[in-house]
Amino acid sequence: MSKGFAGHGTTAGRTSRRRILRLAGGALTMTALGAGLTGCEDELATGGAGSTPPPRTASPEDGKGTEDGKAPAPLWTKSTSAQTYGDNDELVAVDGVVIASGDPLAALDGATGAERWSLPGGAVPGAPLLLGAGGSTLYLASGKYDGNVIGYAPASGKETWRSHLGKEYRQPRPVAVDGTQVYVIAEILEADGSSRTNVIAALNSSTGKLAWKEQRDLGTEQNGVHAAVQGRYLVYTDFKKNLTVRDTATGKQVWTQKTTKTSYGPFVVHQDLVIVPQGQRLQAFALSDGSEKWSVEAEQFTTFREPTILDDVLYIADSGRTLRAVEPRTGKKVWQSTALQDAGAQVPRQFVRVGSTLYGATDLDKQGGVHAIDAKTGALRWTFNDESGDFHSWLVATDGKRVFALHGKKLHALPG
């Protein structure tokens, strides 16, 4: 799945504000699309055009930082056209390139930071960057707002697939992908051009033809949906406290239930379970019938952030700055760490792993950035921060060799 990372910040309510800002920002781009600099060299890193970059400090392998315990210097830093709103799927690394959601949509070479390709109007700023099976295709809603859903080859930026849901629908937006289908949500247009309902549909990822479509209940919204696919199940949450599972072959609803808390961020699926943070509780439900299988509780007055599963371990932080590693099948604790609390560090809301190091990106910048954490113990190794003071959430992605950290429009490549 494209989503499923761990929390942020130190105060409750930050997630809601971030998600609302993302939606508001997406709406503003309907009338005024901003374009940033793409693939330009960062003067802070290079000293300006034509200059020689300063020598980089030695970077020990496997995320261990420098000899004095500080974060390694970036391999490179570039200014980008990124326009992100704080969701975990706005930065991806695949096929030797790293791509941030923005306009123009641009891919930078993972090794050098050089621009590989750029597509003006390629994507709606803040759009989720969803990759098909094996990362061969990047699926996006058209940045031209023309109702098309388009697939691109990540390495070249060439269009490889296109689909159109129909004129009776507005703004189809991909929410999940599996090996055979692209799942989208779109507004259903009324005769007067307004919309009060929306539809969820599956598009064949080979032909672009409609596989099925199902109207969602009145009162649901097309915004705020996080989705994942696991086998024959399409799972999604929304701002209306709905947790819903549909059959991927037919679109028919298998079950739905109300969650105790509004879900503003992604969840995770593992084998036959869907695992959802619900305020002070982390709950696992059976995909087949929605029955609860296990739950974990945080301390009083603390809330769980977004989870992620890497190498069959679930990592999640809470607002009390406690970081946990959990066995996703049973909910049993692998380890629990207060290293972030001890260091006064911000809580990560998104994770990637390279070797024995877990890299966590924070929502808030002060005392945050990208934390390097021992994946076996939860010990904090170092924190990278570009000291820019930018208000945007940090985002991370990895190609297995390097860790890419996006902060506002600055993209940094850190040694993995």
TrEMBL record:
Region (Disordered): 44-81
InterPro entries: PQQ_b-propeller_rpt, PQQ_rpt_dom, Quinoprotein_ADH-like_sf, WD40/YVTN_repeat-like_dom_sf
Basic and acidic residues: bias regions: 59-70
Every Pyrrolo-quinoline quinone repeat domain range: 74-185, 198-342
Pfam families (UniProt xref): PQQ_2 (PF13360)
Top-level lineage group: Bacteria
Coiled-coil regions, chain positions: none
Cited Gene3D superfamilies: 2.40.10.480, YVTN repeat-like/Quinoprotein amine dehydrogenase
Name of this protein: PQQ-binding-like beta-propeller repeat protein
Organism lineage string: Bacteria, Bacillati, Actinomycetota, Actinomycetes, Kitasatosporales
